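If your schedule permits, I should be very grateful for your opinion on a structural question. I would ask you to consider whether the tokens describe a fold that such a sequence might reasonably adopt. Thank you for your consideration; the sequence and its tokens are set out here.
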Amino acid sequence: MPITLRPRRSMLFMPGSNARALDKARGLPADGLIFDLEDAVPPARKEAARAAVAGALAEGGYGGRELVLRSNPLDGPWGRADLAAAAQMPIDALLLPKVETPAAVQKAAALLDELGAPPGLSLWCMLETPLGILFAREIAAAAPRLAALVVGTSDLAKELDALPGKDRLPLLPALGIAVLAARAFGLAVLDGVHLDLDDEAGFAAGCRQGRELGFDGKTLIHPKQIAAANEAFAPSSEEISAARRIIAAYAEASAAGQGVVVVDGRLVEALHVENARRRIALAEAIERLAVPA
């Protein structure tokens, strides 16, 4: 089967109550947009924000970007109405905040079914508490609609009473658990936000670390972070060239009845070919996304 991937290098949170930001997002080079009804919207503006997002989405113009709605908690005063609106919106996914148990995922999935949401509307879950991380495996397996895990590093650091520096050392166990759970059940997984907008070096380092850990991309809080995230989570030209050499050399070796081959001084087996094909497929998907819809 051909490898198909959706780029999620840069997933930008957009305050649902900010009409100017919703409009500006149409021209931003982010891979995806997360329309936020939760943390970015004060209680008095929740209803208006939901209506504003619905209106912006109905107007369209967001091209091929992945469109996600972050709802308020389902057990709160706005959660059910958020899910009812999401079921009718032209979006790709609904992001549930502060998920801590598989039952919460199952409840949301059942409610989406009840509300008539299309089968293609995915569920994403934010893991941003110690309990959410400890239940990551069960959450990842909770519902067929589930497609991605998102680590909420800011809330998680607060709940842990941790003091993460530039190396994010206190968060590494949780980040690793999230990646393990996602990959075990075939889900995408996204790294948390970087709050210091003036710390460009720190942001770039966090992106590199996230990619090294296995994340598909990073959630962002400002458009100025898009370019660095896109660069960090995309295969480089050197990686693509190496991938093509690996595929070609392995095909030649296989035709000669050999199971392994040496490329650029390194032993190459079937697993390396699979990774090479994935990198090329991701690069091709990124190229397609760059073409205006």
About this structure: The longest helix spans residues 270-290. Strands lie at 10-15, 32-36, 66-70, 93-96, 122-127, 146-151, 188-191, 217-220, 261-263, 266-268. The chain has a mean pLDDT of 95.
